[in-house]
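Regression check, zinc ion case 397:
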Amino acid sequence: MADVVVDGDRIARIGTGVAEGVSPAQDCSGKLLLPAFIDGHVHLDKVLIRDELREHDGTLGGAIGAIHERKRRYTLADVSERAREVIEASVQSGTTRLRSHVDVDTIGGLIPLEGVMAAAAECADIAEVRTIAFPQEGLLRDPGAYDLMEAALEAGADVVGGMPHWEPDHAAQQEHVRLCFELAERFDRDLDMHVDETDDGGVRTLEMVADEALRRGFLGRVCAGHVCSLAAAPHDYAERVIDKCLRAGISIAANPVTNLVLQGRADRGLVRRGMTRVGELRAAGVNVLFGQDCVKDGFYPFGRGSMLEVALISAHAAHLTTRADLAFALRAVTEAPAQAWRLTDYGLTAGARADLQLLPVPSWEEALRLQALPEKVWFKGRLVAENTVNSKLHRRH
Ligand SMILES: [Zn+2]
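Current build output:
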């Protein structure tokens, strides 16, 4: 039990009795005060398009193909309205920071970036949204995408994305990785790439990414998302590349909610789970975060911007049940994405930005089990969302 004093947009002090004489005051006794969640991996440009897509086979390739037609019809207003809806839903569920990939390719051009940036600007009073320029269709596979990546970074995209495994062969994958690092260095941006989102254990661009980061001394500035094939690769490769990730300070964004349903679809009998080696990465000390990734798009029919739901589904997928495991699940939607994002003002600590949420439960374990909605959410010290739940039980006696 401690008092938290907020002054302006910052946490001024934390400790027993430090709130003496401060007003107005909020009684939080018996409840759980947490830093607001961070969604470190989401695709706001694609959210909520599912009802307009043709049916496909449910695979990653099927979904990417099915989205092409819809992506051609994107308009700035269309993207920004859908993105805004999910940003608002996220804030209602206790998330005040989101890092969104936005497709940058010759199909949609810069419309996805412009739409998400417009939504971010419109929602700047309730959340902080950063963008990652993401060459979803490849850089070599999609001639013209590289120029658009440069234009996206010039237009204000915050982070350089990538998807090396989507290139046709080893040499093209290597070149894709090199181009992404080159862009990141030239524009002085961090990197957040989609890496090895496949069941094929022979696909190994994670090692290329780690080697490139080590070679260039680009340390602590890279996040690798999905990394599904690491689970299907032999243990010796996994051990070697996990060690390289640790040395390069690479964060891993596991996205179990999407990959549980997207990967392993062709397996019979023992079906792979489609998620990366969360246990081994955690044991090695690699920074692991959980992202929402998708909300009702071609890849995933569910999602509602709730990091509490993401943590619960990820806990099932990654066998997280002990107290230490559940603390790890909390870290994966709070401190871990903050570290990947290199935030220096995050957390429940004096001096941190006052992005907070108050949950009507006594503990994190209960928040996770009961999927409690936050009673209040603060962004930069200002109350930005409230939830009240009214449920009744009609007994006979
Ligand atoms: Zn993704």
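Comparison notes: Residues 41, 43, 101, 194, 225, 293 surround zinc ion (CB under 6 Å). The chain has a mean pLDDT of 97. No diff flagged against the previous build.
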